[in-house]
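can u do me a favor
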């Protein structure tokens, strides 16, 4: 993982931690998911107009097809994530889902996109995954001692992690097409398809309506705006990173967000950080730094 890729991943992770925390605070999860996804698509409209004017269209039928598959994976990711938050806390769902993703990516990357991982690289990814699992175990212990573990939340977190790996693999595939698409144009199609799939889900759930959407926007306007804007910005950085580096390293590297969440909790929220959680966070940083310093070719 080159320093540039690391900077992209780190910045994206910082935004990602913020909006995951805001998801937990929403009142109507279906309305919040639909609204933020739609806002994300609308935010990209003026950007894509400028990009098309400057660069011209740089997408093909294959790129549109891959963006559709990615949009489906991203929609399922949102659905599973919001469902997981119905049953479990952020401290349980976030590290579990993010830790599962690099395992799936590691297994499938060579087959799907031809990104091979060296033995040394595999060790570094394993260090990150071990750190994530330690953080997850710490969270599960705290949850078990308080109100008990809801295994539905764990199952939904597992499904979320699989979807994370899925859309990263598809996006890496799209970014390796020669000639490749504009990152912004590709993201626009992904966001558009994701918005359509999430809209279909919201309509099918029949748990919210126009009044529900208005209520959520009025009660949580700041959260809707932050998540709606930061989500496409955060993932645009990852798409650019995927055009430059190995998908397994990038998916694993995004777990730096778990370390950031621990730091924020300790400094700003005055949370007491248990030794197991702190050790896991340190392992994550160590693994990511090893990837940056020693990984061949990024």
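np, heres the sequence
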């Amino acid at each position: 993982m080159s320093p540039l890729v690391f900077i992209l991943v780190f910045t994206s992770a910082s935004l990602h931690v913020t909006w995951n925390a805001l998801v937990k605070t929403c009142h109507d999860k279906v309305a919040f998911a639909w609204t933020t996804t739609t806002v994300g698509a609308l935010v990209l409209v003026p950007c894509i107009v400028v990009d098309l004017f400057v660069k011209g269209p740089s997408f093909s039928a294959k790129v549109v097809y891959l963006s559709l598959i990615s949009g489906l994976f991203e929609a399922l990711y949102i659905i599973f994530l919001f469902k997981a938050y119905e049953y479990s806390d952020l401290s349980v769902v976030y590290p579990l889902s993010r830790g599962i993703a690099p395992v799936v990516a590691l297994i499938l990357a060579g087959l799907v996109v031809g990104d091979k991982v060296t033995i040394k690289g595999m060790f570094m990814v394993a260090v990150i995954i071990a750190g994530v699992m330690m953080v997850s175990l710490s969270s599960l212990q705290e949850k078990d001692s308080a109100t008990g573990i809801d295994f539905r939340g764990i199952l939904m977190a597992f499904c979320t992690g699989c979807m994370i790996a899925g859309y990263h693999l598809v996006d890496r595939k799209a970014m390796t097409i020669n000639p490749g698409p504009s990152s912004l144009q590709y993201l626009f199609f992904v966001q558009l398809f994701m918005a359509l799939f999430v809209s279909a889900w919201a309509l099918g759930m029949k748990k919210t309506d126009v009044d529900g959407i208005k209520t959520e926007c009025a009660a949580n306007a700041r959260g809707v705006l932050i998540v709606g804007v930061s989500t496409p910005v955060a993932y645009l950085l990852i798409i650019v990173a995927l055009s430059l580096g190995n998908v397994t390293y990038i998916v694993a590297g995004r777990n730096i967000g778990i370390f950031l969440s621990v730091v924020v909790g300790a400094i700003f929220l005055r949370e007491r950080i248990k030794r197991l959680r702190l050790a896991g966070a340190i392992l994550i940083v160590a693994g990511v730094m090893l990837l940056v310093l020693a990984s061949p070719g990024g």
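Residues 68 and 193 are 6 Å apart (CA to CA). hope that helps!!
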